[in-house]
Each structure stands twice: as structure tokens, then as C-alpha cells.
Amino acid sequence: xxxxxxxxxxxxxxxxxxxxxxxxxxxxxxxxxxxxxxxxxxxxxxxxxxxxxxxxxxxxxxxxxxxxxxxxxxxxxxxxxxxxxxxxxxxxxxxxxxxxxxxxxxxxxxxxxxxxxxxxxxxxxxxxxxxxxxxxxxxxxxxxxxxxxxxxxxxxxxxxxxxxxxxxxxxxxxxxxxxxxxxxxxxxxxxxxxxxxxxxxxxxxxxxxxxxxxxxxxxxxxxxxxxxxxxxxxxxxxxxxxxxxxxxxxxxxxxxxxxxxxxxxxxxxxxxxxxxxxxxxxxxxxxxxxxxxxxxxxxxxxxxxxxxxxxxxxxxxxxxxxxxxxxxxxxxxxxxxxxxxxxxxxxxxxxxxxxxxxxxxxxxxxxxxx
Length: 370
Ligand SMILES: C[S@@+](CC[C@H](N)C(=O)[O-])C[C@H]1O[C@@H](n2cnc3c(N)ncnc32)[C@H](O)[C@@H]1O
Fold this sequence. Notes:
Number of domains: 2
Bound molecules: S-adenosylmethionine
Strand order of the largest sheet: 15-6-7-5-2-16-17-1-18
Strand content: 15-25%
Radius of gyration: 25 Å
CATH superfamily of the largest domain: Vaccinia Virus protein VP39
Largest sheet: 9 strands, mixed
Structural class: alpha/beta
Helix content: 25-40%
CATH class of the largest domain: Alpha Beta
């Protein structure tokens, strides 16, 4: 694994999420964090009723929701105007959590729910074999404004430059649209450079007026297939490509599944009781690439084994990870981060304890967050 970030611009806080979030907002370096978080990915205990090796996942539903609400409320002042919050859950509480998200961020902040295919094997012990989780995406600025700042997915389509176009590689797209809302200027006969005449197909019209088509042609932006006899096509350049809108269903084949994430962790930490619920690094990479640009700040206050911080570090983003279990941080998150940091290993001031701290540890935290 390689890291694109040259050194850690990160902070690990050991403690209760709400305390740590308030500390970030109120510390003397608060201006770094207040309004500075571009992405908050949250993978809390789902309230499945299970007891895992490293944490308990059993709470009364009201208490669980109350904790979610308190933490999201403490998060709000840290979010940048362009931020998005991704809350990852299963069926235990996701429907009730949506109501809390609406309450804290406003209904109009809802962007989408991503369905992640978390397992590929069938579980015959249950009435239905659940193979997906939910990731609720909210953007306080609302989906329209957020779309302008989010990144599209890499466009796998082939671009080429057979005519040495100085604008670089391109591919072509048809130059017709449905005739429903067309104006009269979009209905005419095109005469190609080789002299062939074309009318728009039935029910369609040309995308542009004859004047605009001629202007685009003079600019070298029109491709005439079949040696100049074919219908005009618009050249779409690689540099203009805004990427693809992410689908709301993410397949395990694209972003990994629970079992592959767990196996990767077992390989890295052989002989140690496995962390039960790690998320795949590739899933977090997808989220971080959509929601942030290099240098942006990524926050996860249910850090667990450290996946979000590791993925952020690999992609050259700054990060803050908060986790209440010191054992989980020391056993998994710190070694995982150090493995992607190489020589720039985490220094003691990158790791601090927050909750119920003895006096000398409070001082450590202050030196870390100001
Ligand atoms: C589902 S795990 C997160 C797994 C993580 N995404 C990963 O890939 O390893 C949830 C984690 O949240 C931690 N946690 C639960 N409540 C917390 C709280 N109030 N403050 C901080 N951490 C908390 C648990 O100790 C657990 O490690």
C-alpha cells in the first residue's frame, strides 16, 4: 500500500465522540476545525444487540438515538459549508436514524441513501439473508449546491486523439435531442463536408441551430464520421469530463465487502482476535474521492480500526479520527496508520486521550488540539 500524502496531517483522539467534538470546536486551534470539516464518515455501532470482541453493540433504541443526536449536534459547527455527512447503518436503526438526521440537518439536506453490498454469501439462519448496508448522505448546503462541489466518479470511457486535436483526447456524442421542447431553428438539413444531406431522425432534432453547428465546426469541435459522409457528432474532451454521478447501489465487486475487509485485517494482524466490523479501504476511498479534494479535512468519530484515517492518508487528505476504545486505537488504528505513513510515523502529539482525563493527560490533549 502506498500513501499519496507525504506525512500525517492527522490527529487521533481517544475518547467519547461528543467530548472530543466539543474539544475540537472550542480548542484554541478551533479555527482549524470550526467550519473546516469537508467530509464526516460515521460508522457507529448499529445496535444489532451483539457483543463484539472490541465493543458492545447493545443499547436501548432511545439511548442509541439520543447519543446519535447529541453527537451530530456537536458535529454541526465543525462542518464546512461544502461538507457532507455519510452515516453508515444496517436495518437495526437506519429508519429511525434518518429522522434524527432530518432533525439535525433539515429534511432539505438529504442527498441520497447509498446501498452497499456488504456480503456475497447467503445466511440461511435468517428469514431473509441481508446482503446490504445503508449509507445516508446529507449535505447541509442541500443536494444541488453539493453536487457542484462533489467529484464525479472516474469516467472509464475511452478517449483518443486521432486528429491531434490541441485540446487533447476526445470522444464523440450524437448531436440530436428529443424534439419535444425544440425550437424551429433546430430542424434543418445538414450538409456534411463530403456533401451528404441528413435530416434529424423521426421525433428528434439537432442539438444546435445551423449557425451554432457551423461555429462549432470552425472551432474543430465537430466530428464527421464515415469519411465526412456521416451525421455530425460533438467532440467531448477528456479535460471537460466532470466524471459520472455515483449510482446509489455500490457493488462489492467495486468497493469490497465485509469479509474482504476482515481478511485484510487478519493478514495484517495474524494471531490477534479480529476486529469484527472493519470497512474495506476501497469503500472509504470511493467516499473520500467523491466528497473531498486533496488537502481537505476528513473526520470519523467512530474510528474503530482506523479505516477512514488510513484511506484519507493514502489519498492525501487531512484527517481526525476519534475512538473511545484505547485498545482498538493502539491495537489497530495506530499500526495501520504507521504502515501507510512509512518513515513519518505518528508522533505522541498526534494521539491524545480526551474523556475523563487525569490532569496530565488533559495537557496532552490541549497540546494536540490547541
Ligand atoms: C462499527 S465500529 C467502526 C469500524 C470502522 N469503520 C472500521 O472500519 O474499523 C464502531 C466503533 O465506534 C466506537 N464508538 C462507539 N461509540 C463511541 C463514542 N460515543 N465515541 C467514540 N467512539 C465510539 C466503538 O468503540 C467502535 O470501535
